[in-house]
Amino acid sequence: MGYRARFRARPFRQVVKEAPVFCERTSVGLDVHARSVVAAAIDGRSGEVFRARLTPSHAEVIEWVGKLPGPCAVVYEAGPTGFGLARALSAAGLRCQVAASSKLLRPAGDRVKTDARDALNLARLLRLDEVVPVRIPSAAEEAARDLVRTRDAARADLMRARHRLSKLLLRHGIVYYDGKAWTERHDRWLHHQRFDAAPTQSAFEDAYEAVVLATARRARLDEKITALAADSEFSPLTRRLACLRGISTLTGFALAVEIGDWDRFTGASIGAYLGLVPSEYSSGTSRAQGAITKTGNTHVRRLLVEAAWHHRSTYRPGAVLRHRLGSGPGRGPCPRPCRQPALACPLGRIKPAQEGSGDRQRRCRPRTCRLVLVAGGAARLENPGPEPTVEGSNHPGQQREEQRAPRL
């Protein structure tokens, strides 16, 4: 009876998946570099191995693969050479996969690594269907991704330039106290800074010029991204993502081009793809979880984390968000405000004598919340918990929960 009370029975659902089967006769592995391509092919019928060293020309690679016993399937590792070779092979009628380098099986005792061995290993893994492929983006998607990553590099360069300038002033005891830094007032304050030593004055002028140039560079890239987001194949998805708190045009466009095909993910799988799930090392009866894995797309993970910071405060949709929610066709009214979810008990009221190891883990773990796109726009749902109430209510229970809510 106690077992039934603790665990709820779930309906059994049988899932039948077809195992992947290698259908081609010849498997080809390519070790692609900037100036050379080492190829190895295995004939599945005769067991013969073909080897060659080619140039990075797509035409030469396709010509060599065309001379092999067909049909053929090709694989190479993802890397800085991009996806141009994969698109060229697919256009020639050859099945091509780009393998995820971090998912390749490598023998632990293999201490010899050469280009020929890597190409032969790829051909063997492809024949065994042990290759984890990555998604090959389209040419337009990759071009938009290049623009987004260039803007991210400009943002990082601007941050480093600002740090160099501020630390130069700090070494000479000059600190800005009149409000927030990097505003118009702060810029006027920087113009009035003078140094007695000519070398220091030259260093300050160079650091200030670097900040001005980096700011103008970032502004130009922002204008180009905004124009592309307004009229491109990514515009509908960008407008839908912009209905969420913490996501504007730049962030929504970056998420659209970086993730690409959203239909391949679910709410449970996208976190693992972006490295937002906890790491785990379990064996037998012991289970140990650590920090998040931080695998996958670093740029997308940073954007989602920064967007989640906006959900710490109370949900009050402003004029800009209301305009986004009502701009699309067939959209309903803006969702009603939701209060910040409160913890069951303030952290200071937990007594150490009554706290175990499991209690500490549950106490330090934040409440799980979900962001969903509904017909009326974006809403925040807490699972589990009572239905959120409209702000301004005089219900005594709501006031007690708001008093116990932590200030973030």
Explain how this protein is built.
It is a single chain. The protein is an alpha/beta fold and 408 residues long. Among the domains are: 26-127, Ribonuclease H-like superfamily/Ribonuclease H (Nucleotidyltransferase, domain 5), CATH 3.30.420.10; 139-232, no CATH class; 336-408, no CATH class. Helices cover 41% and strands 14% of the residues. It contains 14 helices and 9 strands. The chain has helices at residues 2-6, 58-66, 84-91, 115-127, 139-171, 184-191, 198-230, 235-241, 249-259, 270-273, 298-308, 319-327, 357-364, 396-404, and strands at residues 26-32, 37-43, 49-54, 72-77, 95-99, 278-283, 286-292, 369-374, 377-382. A 5-stranded mixed beta sheet has the order 3-2-1-4-5. It has a two-stranded antiparallel ribbon with strand order 6-7. A hairpin with a 2-residue loop joins strand 6 and strand 7 (286-292). Helix 5 (139-171) packs across helix 9 (249-259), helix 8 crosses helix 9 (249-259) and helix 9 packs antiparallel against helix 11 (298-308). The longest helix is centred in the middle third of the chain and has 33 residues, at 139-171. The radius of gyration is 28 Å and the shape is globular. The relative contact order is 0.06. The model is unreliable at 329-355 and 365-408 (pLDDT under 50).
Roughly what fraction of the amino acids lie in strands?
5-15%
Based on helices, strands and strand pairing, what is the structural class? alpha/beta
Order of helices and strands: HEEEHEHEHHHHHHHEEHHHEEH
| Oligomerization status of the protein chains | single chain
Q: Could you give a short account of the major beta sheet? A: 5 strands, mixed
Averaged pLDDT, please? Answer: 79
Return the CATH topology of the domain at 26-127. Answer: Nucleotidyltransferase, domain 5
* CATH top level assignment of the domain at 26-127: Alpha Beta
Work out the radius of gyration.
Answer: 28 Å
Going by CATH, the architecture of the domain at 26-127 would be 2-Layer Sandwich
Tally of contiguous helical segments: 14
Number of strand segments: 9
Shape label: globular
